[in-house]
Give the backbone structure.
Amino acid sequence: MTANSAHLQDADIEFHGVSKHFGDVKAVDNVSLSVARGSFFSFLGPSGCGKTTSLRLIAGFEQPTHGDVYIGGEAMIGVPPHKRPVNMVFQSYALFPHMSVADNIGYGLRQRSSKPSKTELRKQIDESLEMVRMSGYGNRRVWEMSGGQQQRVALARALINRPTVLLLDEPLAALDRKLRRDMQIELQTLQRDVGITFILVTHDQEEALSMSSNICIMRDGRIEQSGSPRELYDQPINRYVADFVGKTNFVAGSVTQINGQTVCMKTGNGRSFFGMKTAGSPELDVGARVSLAIRPELTVVGSKASNAEDLNTDTAFQGKIRNQIFLGEHTEYLIDVEEIGDVLVLSPKSIESASGGFDPGEYVTIGWKNDQAHVLKDS
Amino acid sequence: MGNKKGSWLTAALLAPTTLWFLIMLVFPLIVVVIYSFGERAPVGGYVASLTLEQYANLPSRLKAFTNTMTFAPLGALMCLIIAYPLAYYLAVKVSQRWKLLLLVLVILPFWTSMLIRTYAWIFILGGRGIPTLLEIIGIEGVRLINTPFAVVVGIVYGYLPLMVFPIYVSLDKLDKRLLEAASDLGSTPFRSFVQITLPLSMPGVATGCMLVFILLMGEFLIPAFLGGGKVFFIGNALVDLFLQSRNWPFGSAVAVMLVIIMLVTVSLYMRFTMGGKSGRDTSIM
């Protein structure tokens, strides 16, 4: 996160060595980060990694045990939630069941010391309803609406207050797949339109990758890596990140030789592999436990007779197709390779048409380029 | 399962309740209504007749009616005022560890007979109870027993748990996220209580009030013990009419009137508290 200290004045949210302990559990452990103004930032990680606690620290529902949270450059220590310039969309939406949709949306404005007039309030509520494409739903009862509609009301209720930062706690988790896709696009569009910083908490890597401009991957209360989705995908700093972001084939081994950025590692059965260190990854020592990581789409599959030269790769292994899934653009193969184990390969349509594709049970050759394989620390 | 079989099963399961309801409630009620149009036999009891005489005589018991109609709502209100903070404390503030113990303490008085407990209050409020203690600190001449105050104390003591539990349930199931959401949207804790907690606990308040009110309408033990004949309810009038003067037809007319008053007030109350709403808000608990 050192690179970010340069943009402090452009940051909406900053964590300065923030920890939050619940008894003996360190839910958030010495986290420092900054979220650039107007960005779409995601906390990504499995449940219990501290991402929701981080969000609640920003909202003010929790107070940090150590460190402090800054919003728009101001220290938030001791500031109660109702005095913070942020608004939250809850996972369960938390709409007020005894109020109409319009009353829910207008709730924030009605709490202000300078209350807007009735006509002004109505105008703003109508605008908000329109923004989330719910015009005409103002008089509905909350529980008359579907999950997707409730989601929109929750969004409108938060955004009408024009917060500095909008916090989204797993907002799409309760929606079905199709609706989730639509809402992902809508959220992105909305974020660009209103220009407010969005902070999303999710355990769904696909959701984080598709929506965010920046992602922070957390584990056990600590930040593993943060960066743009592309950085995290192309340059994961360890096996955990590579495993969490996208699909990856791993070969476990230990480092035998380091030559600049190129690392040689040896598996348990004595086979050597070459791969690259990733930018920002921790220093490797000879003997360190590592994994070779190869993305499925960077792995090439060819007929049994082909060699590395035919495949235009640096390696070549014999394997047997275990499973084949046709995905239209790509075909996904699960291949049993004797020296490695099961390898996932994503073969593009162009190559498939040339080779004619492979069926389960067929023997094939797979390979990859050494500079497209990464050697990652196991931790 | 076929429809026919299903409806048979439903009928079989409902039969005991229906029978109970018919024999224990509907049948006696019909008897009471019939008696109320009859005449008192010379030695007491009932002689068949068809007269409105008993109903015409109702104003002679007006005091019992007005007392009941004053003390039942007042008692319910006093219970509500004391029970709400207690229920709020139990549902929101107490740690999970102590919650169960405190809840048990609330219902603990029910382990002893209501009769004995009310009797105990005669001594607490009587001459050698609190008034004696007050004399020690120099306050003399306080009379507590056989006053309206004693009746209200007895009512609050006896009926408080019936008010605490429904309110506790509605506060306990209140989604804490709603309060976080309110606070997130700029509401102070006090405003959140008024705007979110209070309206969402209204079903519990309504249930508690209804329970206490309905049961108080038929109360006779507390006014008899602690009111000393000065504060008497319809319940006391009924005991007197049926067991002492053995005027069954007049007693029946008073009872019918009580049922009518209860039906009217309860339906008005329900319309008032739940009017205009439908769906899940109206569930009593």
User: Anything to note?
Assistant: Chain B has one domain: 60-282. Residues 276-285 of chain B have pLDDT under 50 and may be disordered. The interface with chain A takes residues 175, 177-178, 180-188, 191, 196, 199-200, 279-281 of chain B (CB under 8 Å). Chain B has 13 helices and no strands.
